[in-house]
Amino acid sequence: MQDDDAKILPIPTRAEGRRWHDMGGEDAGPVELCEHDYALWEKRVDALMVICSSKGHFTVDGLRRALEDMGEEAFETMSYYERWVAAINQNLVEAGVYTLEELGRRMEEVRARGATYGEAAAPHEAAGDG
Amino acid sequence: MKLRAMAERVRVARWMPPGHVRTPAYLRGRVGEVERRLGTFPNPEQAAYGLPAEPRELVRVRFRAADIWGAEAERPDDLIEAEIYGHWLEPVAHQD
Amino acid sequence: MAHDAPFAHSGMSPSGHPYRPDNDEPLTYWQCMEIAMRELLIEKGVTTPEEIARQIEAMDARSPANGAALVARVWTDPAFRERVLADASDAAREMGFDIGPLRLIAVENTDEVHNVIVCTLCSCYPRNLLGLPPDWYKSRAYRSRVVREPRAVLREFGVELPEHVTIRVHDSTAEMRYIVIPRRPEGTEGMSEGELAALVTRDSMIGTGLPRRPE
């Protein structure tokens, strides 16, 4: 490249506004060649994402925006579908699909049903049970 | 995979607004060539906030590794390609 | 390689991942939210239990085997190869795969070019064709490093490319998703499309692996 003005400027730093999720080129350790199958609750989160976005309740960009705004600590401490269910919820609340009051009441009811996922989901186990 | 002599060259804006954008930081300010034009898509910078999203052109841009990483490139002639929305791109005049 | 076991391997789920325990762990905060959210969405008529079940079935049916079948046809049918390179979404639909709104670009490896796929900003992946991505694809290490030092990353996957090969890294930053068409291994002349598909690994379609060699 012969351009006079094509000098390689440094990549913007975090102090200059680079955001945590924008990782390309950052230093990182070796790639851990790990993988796992997805649990039923994770598949349900995925299904709700596809269904709600296809019906126009939010966009993929709305989900990404919520995931990004959750910050780096969420990326390091929450699992992938934990972050997704949080981002879907954020978008559904913003879109007015349900209120935080409704969600709070329902979560309390769910928790009272039992100590495991299977027990807590039981009354509606037919829902999306594959 | 030589860069074509008359390729259309573009520079990515080095804007750093906070918020949801799909232009990676490592490509901001970099010069590449248009690999192909993909048509228009809703602007994600509006869609992300639940706003009506205007159509924006989407362009696949090809960069030489050396034009991104400089002397630190693992191999100068390796290529990185990405989709960049048109409002982030400005034409670059040919120097040759 | 353990991370790229055959997706038809026994002990693997239909989506090509190892099984893991499911419903008998203590309920977490986020699982509780999933149940509550799902019930509210059903009660408000946004979705139905049947629709959720169908969506999960559709996702479970998507696996690297779909991509492997497409690659094997590219290797054996020159006209189909042209169609894949022109519009991979149309070609995948032509094979009968339900890929929804997926916009797919196929990038072909040659003796001079090796393609690798990543999403540095999140975790975009051709899920509607290949199923859900492996965990490493979503990891900080892969997303950060493969655009800057693809050869070092490929070495960690056991892939060493000849000196003269150019690497093209495709960062899925927006609307397109990508699949690598790996090179057909030598010594496979006369093999059937089905036999060839069995050589095509998931990682070879991401670019972090190469197809198996025939026995």
TrEMBL record, chain A:
Task: Output the lineage of the source organism.
Answer: Bacteria, Pseudomonadati, Pseudomonadota, Alphaproteobacteria, Rhodobacterales
* Domain of life assignment: Bacteria
Q: Where is the Nitrile hydratase beta subunit-like N-terminal domain?
A: 20-118
Q: Which organism is it from?
A: Meinhardsimonia xiamenensis
**What Pfam families does its record include?**
NHase_beta_N
Under the heading SUPFAM superfamilies, the entry gives: Electron transport accessory proteins
**Xref: InterPro entries:** CN_hydtase_beta-like_N (IPR049054), CN_hydtase_beta_C (IPR042262), Elect_transpt_acc-like_dom_sf (IPR008990)
Name recorded for this polypeptide:
Nitrile hydratase beta subunit
| UniProt cross-references to Gene3D superfamilies, sorted A to Z | Nitrile hydratase, beta subunit
UniProtKB/TrEMBL annotation, chain B:
Superkingdom of the source? Answer: Bacteria
List the SUPFAM superfamilies.
Answer: Electron transport accessory proteins
Taking every annotated instance into account, which residue ranges of this chain make up the domain Nitrile hydratase beta subunit? 8-91
Q: What is this protein called?
A: Nitrile hydratase
Highest classification ranks of the organism? Bacteria, Pseudomonadati, Pseudomonadota, Alphaproteobacteria, Rhodobacterales
UniProtKB/TrEMBL annotation, chain C:
Q: Name one Pfam family in it.
A: NHase_alpha
Q: Identify its protein family.
A: Belongs to the nitrile hydratase subunit alpha family.
The segment(s) forming the Nitrile hydratase alpha/Thiocyanate hydrolase gamma domain are 31-208
Q: Which GO terms describe its molecular function?
A: nitrile hydratase activity; transition metal ion binding
Q: What is its EC number?
A: 4.2.1.84
Q: Does the keyword Transmembrane helix apply?
A: no
Name of this chain's protein:
nitrile hydratase
Task: From the UniProt record, list the reaction(s) this protein catalyses.
Answer: an aliphatic primary amide = an aliphatic nitrile + H2O
Amino acids binding Fe(3+)? 119, 122-124
Show the segment(s) annotated as Disordered.
1-20
Keyword check for Oxidoreductase, yes or no: no
Name the UniProt key words of this record, in alphabetical order.
Answer: Iron, Lyase, Metal-binding
